[in-house]
């Protein structure tokens, strides 16, 4: 399938720096929102993951910046799975500015699309490892097979 999950966000003042642009670390937060909402769309919440004693810490991250987002912009956070193994998962993310005229349409976008739309701003990848509460690696396919199967549908 490998479609993109899209989730809109309006840039808040607190996410900007003195130059009036989104502070670089805010994009990592948006990547997290994107993957959280993508996993939620499978029918599983992070709360349910934690109830199963599963954690998903970040082990690698990269970002490339083309254009800044600014206060009050509407951006679309696009997320898709780049790789999935029983012990790790890698996500690809894009942040794109959505035109103000398309605001109504943007807020309706919270689901899967074939291609990202809007002005390309930032791309990135994050890699995560499935661990238990003791920070020992676990196999998602054994610990939470339902989620593992559902995530495979997103590859």
Secondary structure elements and pairings:
Blueprint: E1 4-10, H1 24-41, H2 46-51, E2 58-65, E3 74-84, E4 88-98, H3 103-108, E5 111-113, E6 119-129, H4 140-143, H5 145-152
Antiparallel strand pairs: 1-3, 1-5, 2-6, 3-4, 4-6
What's this, in brief?
The protein is an alpha+beta fold and 155 residues long. The protein is built from five helices and six strands. A six-stranded antiparallel beta sheet has the order 2-6-4-3-1-5.
Unreliable spans? none
Number of distinct helices: 5
Oligomer: single chain
What strand line-up does the widest sheet have? 2-6-4-3-1-5
Report how far the terminal alpha carbons are from each other: 6 Å
What proportion of the residues form beta strands (DSSP E)?
A: 25-35%
Structural class: alpha+beta
List the helices and strands in order: EHHEEEHEEHH
Task: Please state the average pLDDT score.
Answer: 92
C-alpha Rg (nearest Å): 16 Å
* Secondary structure: number of strands: 6
State the share of residues found in helices, binned by percent.
25-40%
Shape label: globular
Largest sheet: 6 strands, antiparallel
Description:
With 155 residues, the chain is of the alpha+beta class. It has five helices and six strands; from the N terminus they run E-H-H-E-E-E-H-E-E-H-H. The chain has a six-stranded antiparallel beta sheet with strand order 2-6-4-3-1-5.
Give a quick set of tags describing it:
6 strands; alpha+beta; 5 helices; 155 residues; 27% helix
């Amino acid at each position: 399938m490998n479609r993109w999950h899209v989730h809109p966000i309006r840039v808040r003042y607190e996410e900007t720096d003195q130059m009036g642009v989104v502070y670089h670390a805010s994009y990592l937060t948006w990547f997290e929102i994107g993957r959280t909402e993508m996993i939620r769309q499978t029918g599983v919440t992070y709360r349910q993951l934690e109830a199963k004693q599963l954690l998903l810490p970040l082990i690698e991250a990269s970002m490339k910046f083309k254009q800044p987002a600014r206060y009050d912009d509407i951006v679309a956070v696009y997320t898709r799975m780049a790789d999935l193994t029983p012990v790790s998962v890698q996500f690809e993310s894009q942040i794109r500015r959505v035109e103000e005229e398309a605001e109504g349409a943007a807020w309706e976008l919270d689901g899967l699309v074939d291609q990202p739309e809007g002005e390309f701003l930032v791309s990135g990848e994050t890699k995560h490892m499935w661990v238990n509460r003791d920070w020992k690696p676990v196999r998602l396919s054994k610990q939470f097979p339902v989620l593992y199967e559902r995530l495979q549908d997103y590859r």
